[in-house]
Design goal:
This protein has about 140 residues and is an all-alpha fold. Helix content is about 70%, strand content about 0%.
Length: about 140
Amino acid sequence: MKLLFAQGPWGAVDLALRYHEVQLWFAGNSVFSEQSNAMHAVYPPASYAMLWPLMGWLEFPYARAVAALVLAVAAGWLVIVLVKESSAETRLERTFIALLFLSMYATGFSIGHGQLTIYSVWGLVTGLTLLSFGEGAGRTI
């Protein structure tokens, strides 16, 4: 809810910073030389191109909604992969694994502030899962 509705320093703080940086970058302004933004502009320029489909073409309130939807999908997909790869057998075990990820403070904090952590973890877990396909005798990574 913080990602969508909280105002001021409590909601979508990191998303707002990335949004501002993407807007500056694609307007042709220097993201790294502005006094007010230089302290927060720590992402390489390629990240602005990757973030443009998420927030570059929208006004900020709509970018918040799109980010919330995409984060929900990524978190849901991550839960599905974690439950599947955990080898949990019973319904209670699968529920525990799903709720374990969703109940962590870091998950809620990351989503509420619009951080890119969920995407990073999703990519890491999905990549490792893809690498594990086909493992067998004689195969090394």
